[in-house]
Structures are given as C-alpha cells and as structure tokens.
Design the sequence.
C-alpha cells in the first residue's frame, strides 16, 4: 500500500481568516486550519472527521482552491496547486472535483439536468461536438443510475429529489475523470434510506477510476464504514489518524476515545462508558496554548492537570500504525 | 455498474406554469396596466395612419387659432392653428421612444455595474458603489436641466441624459441580489469545475437576476417618460419633435392655460398621467409576482 505514490499530498496546510473586531481597530486572525498534513493514494478514501467548527470544511475548500490557504503546500499528481492561478488553475480544476453537502443548493435550479452535466464537459473542453457531448452526458447519467437518462436529463434540477440531485452532482464530477474527489458531507442532507445507495455509487466509481477520495464528515461511524483511513480533526488540527478498525477499537487520543464511546451500537445491554465531553470546541480566534484539547480533556483532569499539556503543543507522532497528537496517549497494555 | 435507479419516483413538475403575462393578467392592477400600456403602444404605432392632419401644419388664418373641439379638429387647435389631436398622437411616440430607449441604457449600465460589483466584490465594489451612491443622491432634475442646456436640445441627447441618470437604483438592487446569489453553492460548484467568471455570470447569475431586472425596468420606463415630459415642459425638449411635454410647454407659454383652452393642455396632461400610471401598475404587478413576500400583502 505504501509503495504507491500518493495522488494528494498536503503538507502543513494552514487557513486563516481575518476577522474584523467590533469597536477596536484592526483585524484578528482566526485560524481555522492549523498545520494539517495528509496523503491519499489512488483508489483510497481518507475520511476527515470532526465536529462543526473543527475546520474540516475549510480543509476541503482550501484543497479545492475555493479559499486561499494561508500557507502550506497541496501537491496533486506531483503538481503544486497553491502555485497555480488564473487560467492555469482553471484548466487544472477538472482533475480535482468536489461533491457539495447540500444538493438543493449546489445545482442551479434554473438549468436542466442535462445542461448541468454538459457544463462540466463544456468547461473542461471534453467532446468534439454537441452530439458527442450529449452522448457522454447521457452515459454519465445512466452510470449514476438516473434512468431513463433522456427523460431525467430534460428535467430541471429542482424537480428531482435530494438523492437524485446528489447523483447528478456525482455524475457531473465523475464525467471529468478526476484524480481527486473531495466529498464534503455528501450524504448528511439526505434521507437515511438513500445514504447507502449514494455511498455505494461513490465507492464503485472511485474504485473503477482509481480516484483518491477525501471524505469530510462529522459522523465517525460513517467514516468507519466508508473510509480506508480516518483522520480525526479538532480545532483545525489532526489529532489522530489511522485505519478505521484500529482507530475505532483502540483510540489513543482522548478526543477520539470520547467520540468512539458515543457511537451507537446495535447490541443491547453492552456495558459502555460513554464519555460526554463538556464545553465547546475552542474559538478559532483563541486557540488554547499547549494542547488545544486540554480544557475539555478528561485525561488531563484525571492526571491532575499536568503542566506539559498547557505548556507544549503535542505533535502528531506515530505510535504503531496510528498517528496521535497527545502527550499521554492511551497505551495498549493499560487497556 | 448501475445502482438502483429510482430513489423515488421522479417528482412531478409543479402545476402548469402560467406565462409571465398570464400571471400579470390575473392580477387586477397588472391587467389594467397591461391594457393601458398596450393601448398607448397601439396609438403611437398606428398614429400616423389615423391622424387627420399633419401635426406640424399651421392653420391657414387667424380663425383657425385656439379653436375648441369641433367636427374637423376633434381636440381643437393650438395657438398656431395646428390640430391638437394629431399632435397628441404624435407626442405619444416621443414619450415611448424616450421612455424605452433611456430605460435600455439605464438597465444595461445598472445591471452591468450591479452584477460586477456584487460578483467581484472587494475594491471594485467599493469604487463602483461610491459612484452609484454619488448618482443616487445627486438631485437628478437640476442635473438634467444643466446637462440639457449644455449639450443641446435634441432627442438623442435627452435620451442619453435620462438614461445616464436613471441607473443607480437598478445597480443597487441588482448588486444586492448578486451578493446573495454568489453565496449559493452552485456558484462555487461551477467555479470548481473550472468555469470562468464570465461564464458563471452569464449562465448562473444573469438568469437569476433577470426577473428582477425586468420588474425594475418597467418602473424605470415610467420615470424616464416623466423626466422627458418635465424637460420638455420647461423648454428643454427637442424643438423639432412634438411631445406631450412640449405641448404642455407651448400651451403654457402661449397663455392657453390662462385662457381656459382645456382641449390644448388636458390631452397631453392626461396622456402623461396615463402612460406613467400604466407602466407603474405593470411594474408593481410584476414585482409582486416575482416577490412572494409582496404577493400576500396585496
């Protein structure tokens, strides 16, 4: 697995927003993403899991170059995306595509389904003439299960259900044969009954085309099901990364541990210690010094508030197959 | 490869959509406005075919001056013995010509500035909105008078002056619509496909702001017609073209109003009233149809 070179290689990505402060002059800096590094290989899915405000959508938007990263590098197919601008960037965009969270917002309601798919082709300059573009677009609709394609294609996007719209969005992205797919909560706005179908479709297509997928979600159990690797983000930083089975069965960061402890399980009467965290994710304007999780960390309190946690910011370090950013990670033998 | 085709049945299309004219027809104010507008347009188009006399032909002798309505001159004659009814028909053409062309100018400028300001934001927005605000607060009538007397009195100049002074409201409204539109996720989606700004504006912005532009445009027509009438009334109209405003001007200047020659000043006065009312009713009706929040208040 490690022998294959990653398609996406993000290093030390930082995204800051300037926030105008009331009353006082000048601006303050809100750091939404703080030194995130990640790699995704062809056909692999990395889930980025975090609660709202953790910066996961900023990570997605920065990689998509929809917002400007403050610093760091984003290498796609060995090319530095942050250095691209203007026309170069526009032409490169077909190689990294995004599925947006809300299919009711991401498709223009004044255009038909076919127009929506055709737009991808027109913008990327795929297909020789209109007839060929149309043929490709209809094929793409069939491929995502919107049948009969002619019929669905003639509809306006607002006439479709949420699941169907998300299929249209997937078709419009996949028709460009991207190398990277960024899926920002692709099923969170959909009925639970439709989610499996959409996820299965995304998986089939990304396997077939060997697409690297960055899967953004707030739902750890979904990531567990869907992803090849999981990165847990907290306050703009990856706090733990690993394979789903390892990470879920043996979380080493106290934050992951708390998240895992509240995943619903179907078996009744299993004794579980739910860890309910108090407080909120820190304001990106005032990230705590030292370990950013320390104010909410049960372990920090259990260990008697060690000085190390508030004086030094833990780095993401490998422990076995997992990567953890904690001064006092959970140890196997203590379990 | 295919996955289960239908998550649900495809949703039915919403009930048969009335065309925009159909919707206006269902609105009482809109219907009145539409009828009035159509009749004014009809009058001005068929005017030359039905007018009994050349509007500019002066009377043969003193007996034909300021005659009250009679079997020959249905609306009497003016101080030069010209037929008022023919002038009235002729005047509607100038009003409409000025109203429509000045509005096109105002709409193109307003929509262009509004969309670029709202879409690109930043420094461009600041500069464009400063210019807009300047034109918005500058008292337009004195400026029109000043410009009219500087650039001369011909129809083209009048149209340009009115057009160039009528766009700021349009620009403001369209900018705010564009600002909210660019936050809709289909805009970043188009951007992430690699679409150019021009394409996004053409394909995703303009179709959405167009109804608003049209609604505003209709109201601008009313304002432009009124502005032309005002300029003509105070004597800054095109002297070669008879318009309702210039008829009022000559009626006033020749003392017809003082002498109670109602047939001279009433037709153009009522004409202006009718045409402005017609476009205003139509504009408000259109606005209500596009803006559901106003629909219930009606």
Sequence:
């Amino acid at each position: 697995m490690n022998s294959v070179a990653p398609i996406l290689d993000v290093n030390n990505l930082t995204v800051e927003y300037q926030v105008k402060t009331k009353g006082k002059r000048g601006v303050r800096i809100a750091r939404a993403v703080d030194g995130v590094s990640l790699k995704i290989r062809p056909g692999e899915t990395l889930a980025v899991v975090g609660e709202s405000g953790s910066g996961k959508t900023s990570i997605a938007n920065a990689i998509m170059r929809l917002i400007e990263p403050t610093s760091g590098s984003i290498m796609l197919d060995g090319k530095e995306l942050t250095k691209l601008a203007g026309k170069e960037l526009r032409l490169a965009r077909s190689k990294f595509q995004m599925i947006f969270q809300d299919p009711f917002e991401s498709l223009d309601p004044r255009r038909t389904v076919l127009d929506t798919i055709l737009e991808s082709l027109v913008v990327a300059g795929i297909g020789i003439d209109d007839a060929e573009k149309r043929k490709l677009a209809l094929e793409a609709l069939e491929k995502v299960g919107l049948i009969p394609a002619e019929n669905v294609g003639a509809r306006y996007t607002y006439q479709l259900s949420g699941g169907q719209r998300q299929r249209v969005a997937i078709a419009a992205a996949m028709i460009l044969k991207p190398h990277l797919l960024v899926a920002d909560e692709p099923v969170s706005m959909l009925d639970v009954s439709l989610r499996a179908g959409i996820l299965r479709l995304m998986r089939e297509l990304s396997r077939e085309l060997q697409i690297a997928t960055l899967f953004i979600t707030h739902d750890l159990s979904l990531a567990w099901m869907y992803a090849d690797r999981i990165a847990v983000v907290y306050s703009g930083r990856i706090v733990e990364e690993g394979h789903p089975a390892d990470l879920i069965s043996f979380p080493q960061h106290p934050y992951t541990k708390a998240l895992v402890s509240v995943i619903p399980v179907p078996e009744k009467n299993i004794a579980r210690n739910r860890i309910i965290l108090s407080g909120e994710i820190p304001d990106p304007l005032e990230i705590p010094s030292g370990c950013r999780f320390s104010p909410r960390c049960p372990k920090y309190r259990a260990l008697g508030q060690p000085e190390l946690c508030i004086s030094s910011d833990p780095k993401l370090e490998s422990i076995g197959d997992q990567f953890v950013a904690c001064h006092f990670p959970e140890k196997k033998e203590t379990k | 490869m295919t996955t289960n085709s239908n998550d649900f049945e495809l949703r039915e299309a919403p009930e048969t959509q009335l065309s925009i004219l159909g919707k206006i027809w269902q609105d009482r104010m809109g219907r009145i406005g539409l009828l009035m507008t159509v009749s004014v347009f009809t009058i001005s188009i068929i005017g030359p075919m039905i007018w009994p006399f050349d509007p500019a032909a002066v009377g043969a002798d003193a007996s034909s001056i300021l005659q009250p309505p009679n079997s020959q001159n249905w609306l009497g004659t003016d101080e030069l013995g010209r037929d008022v009814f023919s002038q009235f028909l002729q005047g509607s053409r100038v009003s409409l010509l000025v109203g429509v062309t000045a509005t096109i100018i105002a709409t193109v400028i307003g929509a262009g500035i509004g969309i670029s300001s709202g879409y690109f934001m930043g420094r461009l927005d600041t500069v464009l909105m400063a210019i807009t605000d300047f034109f918005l607060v500058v008292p337009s009538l004195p400026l029109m008078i000043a410009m009219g007397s500087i650039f001369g009195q011909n129809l083209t100049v009048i149209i340009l002056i009115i057009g160039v002074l009528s766009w700021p409201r349009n620009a403001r409204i369209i900018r705010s619509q564009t600002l909210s539109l660019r936050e809709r996720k289909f805009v970043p989606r188009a951007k992430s496909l690699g679409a150019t700004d021009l394409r996004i504006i053409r394909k995703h912005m303009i179709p959405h702001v167009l109804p608003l532009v049209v609604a505003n445009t209709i109201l601008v027509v009313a304002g432009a017609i009124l502005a032309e009438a005002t300029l003509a009334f105070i004597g800054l109209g095109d002297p070669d073209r008879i318009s309702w405003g210039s008829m009022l001007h000559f009626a006033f200047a020749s003392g017809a109003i003082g002498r109670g020659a109602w047939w001279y000043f009433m037709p153009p006065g009522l004409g202006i009233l009718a045409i402005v009312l017609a476009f205003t009713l139509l504009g408000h009706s259109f606005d209500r149809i596009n803006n559901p929040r106003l629909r219930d208040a009606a």
